[in-house]
Amino acid sequence: MFPISDDNSDRHLTPLVNYVLIAINIFVFIFLQGMGNNLSFTYAFSTVPAEILSGTDIVTQGEVVRDPNTGQTFQVPGLQPTPISVYFTLISSMFMHGGWGHLLGNMLFLWIFGDNIENRLGHGRYLTFYLLSGILASLSHVLFTVVANQSGMTPSLGASGAISGVMGAYLILFPRRKVNVLLLRFIVAVPAIAALGIWILFQIISGIGAFGMDGGGVAYAAHIGGFLAGMLLIKLFDRGQRYVDEGLSRRQDFRRRNY
């Protein structure tokens, strides 16, 4: 069940912040990460749990790793110097991606669900909500590495945590809104509670399966933590549809008076 669109019939606010967030993610991946080839940048600005826990920048040498299944060897780059506070990587990492599939999948989900949350919160509150969800998601991943006794030296990156927060908020605000999903070879409309409920259930099951396993992979704890953060934070950020309608009415009155 893969979401591809949703009902935007009630949207009256152009989601400028959402567009800018998508544009920044694409810009960073293409021009700063070199479409995944600039590993020095990627390994400098990703979130490294050990750095967050210690508050110090860690630099390591690259190493040659042998795949026990295929026997092939490949070079794994070491952690690069971070020219900013290591804590700022909690933000920089949420605008970076590991590949085209990672980027495009995240941007599709942000495109589908982000505009509705921005429409409800307004531009400034939505941006704050998005960034805070991403930070809490990354901290959830850091905490998980400790609880699960995983290596804290593996960098993490991606907008998934912040977008998970957006999805958690969407589930709270619009549980019955129709979401078009690709199911096998068919496109069907299902309530958001079904589409997002199945998604987070998969993350929880996968996260439990990853418990005790070490090395790279999907940061399921960030997805789960971001989703829960979004569900809780939206209660603080949402002022309700009445507030949004009043703000829209004031802007329309201002335009009429000045044009």
Secondary structure layout plus pairing:
Elements (H helix, E strand, L loop, with lengths): L1 E5 L9 H17 L6 H7 L3 H6 L8 E4 L6 E4 L12 H4 L7 H22 L1 H25 L12 H14 L4 E6 L2 E6 H19 L9 H18 L2 H19 L1
Antiparallel strand pairs: 1-4, 2-3, 4-5
Helix pairs in contact: 1-5, 5-6, 5-7, 6-7, 6-9, 7-8, 7-9, 8-9
Number of domains: 1
Structural class: mainly alpha
Number of separate strands: 5
Q: Please, what is the average pLDDT?
A: 91
- How far from one another are the termini? 48 Å
Share of β-strand residues: 5-15%
Reported for the largest beta sheet, the result is:
3 strands, antiparallel
* Sequence stretches where pLDDT stays below 50 over 5 or more residues: none
Number of helices: 10
CATH topology: Rhomboid-like fold
Please state the overall shape, judged from the principal axes of the Cα atoms: globular
* CATH class descriptor: Mainly Alpha
> Percent helix among the residues?
55-70%
> Could you tell me the radius of gyration in angstroms?
20 Å
CATH superfamily: Rhomboid-like
The CATH architecture would be Up-down Bundle
Order of helices and strands: EHHHEEHHHHEEHHH
- Sheet with the most strands: spatial strand order: 1-4-5
Key structural traits:
3-stranded antiparallel β-sheet, two-stranded antiparallel sheet, Rhomboid-like fold, single chain, 10 helices, mainly alpha, 259 residues
Structure explained in plain terms:
This protein has 259 residues and is mainly alpha-helical. It has a single domain, classed as Rhomboid-like (Rhomboid-like fold, Up-down Bundle). It contains 10 helices and 5 strands, in the order βαααββααααββααα. A hairpin with a 2-residue loop joins strand 4 and strand 5 (186-191). The chain is globular.
